[in-house]
């Protein structure tokens, strides 16, 4: 009896020690996450965008209309102009597949809960300056891309660092670090966390077990991913525009049905971006925010959503068929506009106009995250609102898995300096989807955040060091833009 008592005591103490150890590890990871996404990183991300915007004389802003017209042109859907693997439109859609994700639904709601409605303003600010960051990293990626042994384009910040920086040793070190962090991030933020969002959403909305969902999305991912960039881009070219239009229309309906509250919601958004106050909800919920919280969460979630400055979109941009890197840089830059200015704004306005911010659920807990967005849509659409948001999360998250697979694969290829192992990466990546769909992943979420931040650091260093070259390329191509604009006007006059 005494033996069993001693054994039980030992076993229990070991379990307690193990739990305490995991709690300690989790807390350390959380603290690191808080630090890396603290003021220094946010200042570096936005500051780089501001610096590049001024250095290029606001070219991204001045040429935004040109970029949007280029995206929507028939030529963008062809592979006739220049070299590359996929059309300019397909390259953009694949990049958007990775960026338009749960951050547009859950991230916006989280930012507005933690930082108040004013966080949306700071998301817009980060996007405005993020346009130039996104343009710069994509343009340089195309300029310094290479062709692998298979005849496919290989590019991204790691190639820019290795081939573009004057100090080759430093460039190789930065390139290696960026590629390593990208591979790690691809399994986290680009895979497991997205799969987890899909399985949880399907379980909550439709009652399907996470295991069944995990099996289905793993098979779907494997079938698509095995086809490489061609297969991924074809799916993305259909799914991404479709899901974006679907969600935007649903969001606009919510806003229009709450139109009488939109002016007050907009006023609250702009006022609380600069003046701290408490938000009182309809069910005794109160959220207290500060200007600093508003800035922090707005910028952090904005960058998290559009990935401007992280360098991930530049990997996909390198696959585009184009006759000039600047041209495709402008096309890919619109991803930040569509992601934050359009999709995130729809979510933010739907929440602000519905009056659900600050309300509580039946247990007395304040609504936040996906529950907050679902409540906003359900406020006017009833039970259908919950289903619409759930479907949006499923589509957004799955497309993110596809987009990030390509990012990780190209980084993996860079690390091994060969495409021969890409198929192994594709299979492992697809199988990891099942793990993400069936496991609780708070630790993975935190680790993913850290990997994203670590990706950004070498990329931002590279952008700052090559800012002069970015400005020179912008100036070189500007006459081409002016000529094409003039030719467009001539055609319009001739047709008239």
| Number of DSSP strand runs | 4
Q: What is the rounded distance between the termini?
A: 100 Å
Low-confidence segments, given as residue ranges, are: 280-288, 492-496
Give the helix level as a range of percent. over 70%
CATH topology: Hydantoin permease
**Tally of separate helices:** 20
CATH uppermost class = Mainly Alpha
What's the rounded overall pLDDT mean? 81
Largest β sheet strand count, sense and barrel closure? 2 strands, antiparallel
What do these coordinates show?
The chain is mainly alpha-helical. It has one domain (82-465): Hydantoin permease. The protein is 77% helix and 2% strand. It has 20 helices and 4 strands. The protein has helices at 2-36, 39-55, 59-62, 64-72, 88-99, 106-115, 119-143, 157-164, 168-206, 210-225, 228-257, 262-271, 291-306, 312-317, 325-354, 369-381, 383-416, 422-438, 442-465, 467-495; strands at residues 146-147, 153-154, 278-280, 286-288. The strands form 2 sheets. The protein has a two-stranded antiparallel ribbon. A two-stranded antiparallel sheet has the order 3-4. A hairpin with a 5-residue loop joins strand 3 and strand 4. The longest helix has 39 residues, at 168-206. The chain is globular and about 60 Å long.
């Amino acid at each position: 009896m005494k033996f069993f008592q001693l054994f039980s005591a030992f076993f229990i103490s070991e379990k307690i020690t193990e739990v305490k150890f995991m709690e300690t590890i989790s807390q350390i990871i959380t603290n690191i996450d808080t630090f890396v996404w603290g003021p220094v990183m946010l200042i570096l991300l936005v500051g780089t965008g501001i610096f590049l915007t001024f250095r290029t004389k606001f070219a991204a802003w001045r040429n935004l209309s040109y970029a949007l017209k280029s995206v929507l042109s028939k030529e963008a859907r062809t592979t006739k102009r220049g070299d590359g693997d996929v059309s300019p439109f397909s390259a953009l859609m694949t990049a958007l597949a990775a960026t338009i994700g749960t951050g547009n639904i859950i991230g916006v709601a989280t930012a507005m809960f933690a930082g108040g409605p004013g966080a949306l303003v700071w998301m817009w600010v980060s996007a405005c300056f993020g346009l130039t960051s996104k343009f710069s990293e994509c343009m340089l990626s195309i300029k310094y891309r290479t062709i692998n042994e298979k005849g496919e384009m290989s590019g991204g910040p790691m190639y820019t660092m290795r081939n573009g920086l004057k100090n080759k040793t430093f460039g190789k070190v930065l390139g290696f670090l960026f590629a390593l962090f990208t591979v790690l991030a691809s399994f986290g933020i680009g895979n497991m966390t997205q799969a987890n969002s899909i399985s949880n959403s399907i379980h909550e909305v439709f009652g399907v077990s996470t295991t069944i969902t995990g099996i289905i999305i793993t098979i779907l991912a494997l079938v698509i991913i095995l086809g490489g960039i061609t297969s991924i881009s074809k799916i993305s070219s259909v799914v991404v525009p479709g899901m974006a239009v679907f969600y935007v229309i649903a969001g606009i309906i919510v806003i229009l049905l709450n139109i009488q509250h939109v002016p007050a919601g907009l006023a609250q958004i702009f006022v609380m971006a600069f003046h701290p106050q408490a938000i009182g909800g309809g069910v005794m919920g109160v959220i207290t925010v500060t200007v600093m919280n508003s800035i922090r969460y707005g910028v952090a979630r904005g960058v998290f959503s559009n990935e401007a400055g992280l360098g991930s979109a530049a990997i996909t941009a390198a696959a585009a068929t184009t006759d000039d890197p600047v041209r495709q840089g402008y096309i890919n830059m619109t991803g930040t506009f569509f992601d934050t200015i359009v999709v995130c704004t729809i979510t933010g306005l739907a929440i602000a106009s519905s009056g659900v911010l600050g309300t509580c659920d039946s247990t007395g807990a304040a609504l936040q995250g996906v529950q907050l967005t679902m409540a906003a849509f359900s406020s006017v659409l009833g039970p259908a609102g919950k289903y619409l948001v759930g479907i949006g999360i499923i589509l957004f998250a799955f497309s993110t898995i596809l987009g990030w697979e390509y990012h990780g694969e190209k980084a993996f290829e860079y690390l091994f300096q060969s495409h021969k192992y890409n198929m192994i990466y594709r299979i492992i990546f697809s199988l990891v989807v099942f793990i993400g769909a069936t496991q609780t992943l708070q630790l993975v979420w935190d680790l993913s955040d850290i990997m994203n931040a670590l990706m950004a650091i070498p990329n931002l260093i590279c952008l700052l060091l090559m800012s002069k070259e970015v400005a020179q390329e912008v100036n070189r191509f500007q006459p081409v833009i002016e000529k094409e604009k003039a030719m467009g006007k001539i055609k319009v006059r001739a047709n008239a």
